Amino acid sequence: MTARPIDGREIAARIRAGVAAEAAALERSSGIRPGLAAVLVGDDPASATYVKMKRKACEEAGLASRVIRLPAETSQEELLSRVTELNADPGIHGILVQLPLPTQIDERAVVRAVDPDKDVDGFHPLNVGRVALGELDETFVPATPAGILRLLDETGVELRGAEAVVLGRSAIVGLPTALLLLHRSATVTICHSGTRDLASHTRRADVLVAAVGKPGFVTAAMVKPGATVIDVGINRVTDGDGKPRLVGDVDFDQVSNVAGWLTPVPGGVGPMTIAMLLENTLAAARRAPGVMGAAEARR
Ligand code: NDP
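^ Those are the sequences you sent over. The predicted structure of the assembly is below.
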C-alpha cells in the first residue's frame, strides 16, 4: 500500500484565503479589522522565525499585526504590564506570548495574565478547561490540535468509533488533540514515556497522531495497515552530507508503505498551525464587544 499524502500546505492556503475573505467582510460590516499582537521576549532564533511567519500570514490575510519585542532581561513585572496593556487595547483581538520565555519569568503567570477572550493560543486554564469540557464554541482551541483535526476531516476518515492513539501528552499538542478526538467520539489512548509496550497500542490505531519530538520514532512495524497517520514532529537533523533538514516523528519512507493516509514533514501539520491561529484571531474579533452579532459569534 502507498499512503495517500495529506497536503497541509494546500489545505492551509484554502483556510487562509477563507479568513482573508471573512476578515474583509467583517471590516466592511463593522469597521473592525481583526488584530493580533505577538510578544517576543529575548532573541531565540526559532521563536523569532515563528513570530515572523505569524506576522507575514496576518498581513497576507489582511489582519492587523503588531510585534512587541522585549529584551531577554525583561522582568516579569514589565512583561505582565505589557500584557495588561494589550488586554485593554480595543484594536488587538488576539494576544500571543511566544514561548519559551527566559528563565526569570514565570510562564504560568504570563499565560494566566492574557485575557481569556484574547487568548488565541488557547493556553489559558479557562480555555483549556473549556476544551476539556467540549465547549469548543466558547473557547480557542490551540492551533496545532485544531489543525490536526482539520487535516483528519479533510481525509473524510470516520472518527466516531475509530481507535485513535496519540503519542505524547503535552499541554500544547498531545493532550488537547486527545480531548478533541474524544469529543468526536473516537476511542482514545494517550501514550507517553511511561507507556509499556507502545507498539501494542499504536498497532491498534485507525488514527495515529505522533507528537513525541523524536525523528523517525514511528516505524512501519508500529502502524496498522491502512491507518491514518498524522506526524506532528518537527525535528532538525543533519544529513550525511552535513546539510540540515526537517523530519517528523514518523519514518516517512517506511510508514508510507503501510499507512492509508500520511502527512509529510514539512508541509503537513506545520502550515495548519498558523492557519488555525488566524482563524482564532478572526473568531476573537467577531466576539469582541461592539461587533454586531457578537453574541451569535459566541454560540
Ligand atoms: P513535548 O516534548 O512537550 O512532549 C513530547 C511528548 O512525547 C511527551 O508527552 C513525552 O512523554 C512523549 N514521549 C517522549 N519520548 C517518548 C517515548 N520514548 N515513548 C512515548 N512517549 C514519549 O513536545 P511537544 O508536544 O511540544 O511537541 C512534539 C513534537 O511536535 C515536537 O517535534 C515539536 O517540534 C512538534 N510540534 C510541531 C508543531 C507544528 O506546528 N507542527 C507545533 C508544536 C510542536 P512524557 O510526557 O511522559 O515526558
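Residues 144, 167-170, 172-174, 191-195, 198, 211-214, 232-235, 269-270, 273 surround NDP (CB under 6 Å). The radius of gyration is 19 Å.

Shout if you want it in another format.
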